[in-house]
UniProtKB/TrEMBL annotation:
UniProt-listed SUPFAM superfamilies: TPR-like
Name of the protein in question: Kinesin light chain
Gene3D superfamilies: Tetratricopeptide repeat domain
Signal peptide: none
Pfam families assigned to the protein according to its UniProt record, in alphabetical order: TPR_10 (PF13374), TPR_12 (PF13424)
InterPro entries: NLR-like (IPR053137), TPR-like_helical_dom_sf (IPR011990), TPR_rpt (IPR019734)
Domain of life: Eukaryota
Amino acid sequence: RYAEAEPIYIKVLELRRDILGEKHPDTIGSMAELATTYHAQGRYAEAEPIYIKVLELRREVLGEKHPDTIKSMASLAATYYAQGRYAEAEPIDIKVLELRREVLGEKHPDTIRSMAELATIYHAQGRYAEDEEISIKVLELRREVLGEKHPDSLQAMHDLAITWNSQGRRDDAIGLMNKCLRLRQTVLGQDHLFTKQSAQSLESWENG
């Protein structure tokens, strides 16, 4: 219901600018919420300049290593990615990963998610060797931190199988996706969207 929320976010932002000033954290937070609303509706061209402004302000007010600043960097990278602008998204995501490793540690879920997002950017550019290296690490960390049956671990398994198939490693891809499918059927159920995605990939590879 983002379309309904949009005028409310705009009004709140106007009020906070007037009362608190543009550099107040609450005002910046309202800007970020508005940008997120646009992003969720696929209105990336409108979200992008707001995310850029939010990032500039948070760097100035909070510093580069503040979690909100890092989150703003990740949001901007996601907006570039959604527009197919992978070369612009990549250096930002690399920076986000560096900062999260430093601030949160290698095994923090946000750090691992940043690794997965960077792997996705490499995959989209056909850079499967770089994608694979990170995807293997993501799967290892999620298994260690969350357990093998956690939905995030299963997503990492699915993603690595996709990468192997893209590299022409069909047998490896089928073996891993088979395991992922069985676990998703158990954990998520037969009718879950993610279970169906794994089943469809597996079927297309086996029949290909």
